[in-house]
Amino acid sequence: MLFSKIAGVGHYVPERVVTNHELEQYMNTTDAWIRERTGIRERRFFNPDTDTVANMGSRAARVALERAGLHPPDVDFIVFATITPDYYFPGCGVLVQRELEIPTIGALDIRNQCSGFIYALSVADQFIKSGMYKTILVIGSEIQSSLLNLSDEGRSMAVIFGDGAGAVVLQATEDPAHRILSTHLHADGRYAEELMVKDPGSSRPGRWITREMVEAGGTDPYMNGQAVFKQAVVRFPEVIREALEKNGCAASDIDLLVPHQANLRITNHVQETMGLPAEKVVSNIQRYGNTTAASIPIALSEAWEAARVQPGNLLCLAAFGSGFTWASALIRW
Ligand code: UT7
Q: How many CB atoms lie within 10 A of CB 201?
């Protein structure tokens, strides 16, 4: 039987630290409000001279490869999750393929927002289990700061999101003791408009992007924060339990929960609902904000660096976000 295992994990975040106090200069907000409602203290904003979504992803991927003891030519497929691609098309996967100089391997982009990384991991896991590929780069990378409206109008979104990238190398293994056990993917498109960037879009009269769209705020991200929050605190525990039940495990078996970093209040709620002690749950939203598809691999990479991930540990990844989409993965490290 073929399985897949995470052979290496890495991350890259831009150098520029943007504190809540800096945001106070641009909009009517306070450090106290942001910390109380979200847990966030600071986030990273990209450097337009040096950072792109693809090259941030490539940098994270190089770290993951090095930690796996591998080199770019060892990779035979790329799955890239982002909601903020460098180009409308083509996707970022091909740009990573070019940057890593891996000739003609396939590259797939995934657009599943905050659940994007787990969706990408699941796709890669199926490719490996089917025997189609042996070594796959799974990347989540976002530059969200350039989408944010850093004014009073956009403040409810602007204070939450940040930039960053993370990656894992997934490798084929025949060892059932160290592998991805299962992945679980869900969506409910009835809520598509509750968290979205509406414009530009192709199904528009006239042009796909117009000055009017921009002036009307259609290109700014929109979020019905409370609707997202209410569903997130239900779906996170639900999809974690689904993964545990599928594998005959209990919540107490989890050694480390790596949730998508949406809001510290959501994470704390999930931790309490699942009856987990704080040290078994990774939280780094305080330093990076919500980095959407990048948040889980960044958190996983930091946890690995801090030796919080050991061989044999049971890890659970879980996410909820725009779509709505939600997902989990259970991993025996
Ligand atoms: O990644 C997955 C997707 N995202 C999420 O999971 C996020 C889910 N939602 C949330 O995290 C929370 O709903 C938010 C953090 C977005 C907002 O927190 P909230 O406790 O739901 O606040 P609210 O939207 O109900 O706003 C409360 C008040 C409002 O003022 P009034 O109407 O009470 O006078 C807002 O206008 O806070 C005001 N407000 C702000 N004040 C200072 C909204 N944004 C800000 C701000 N600074 N940045």
A: 11
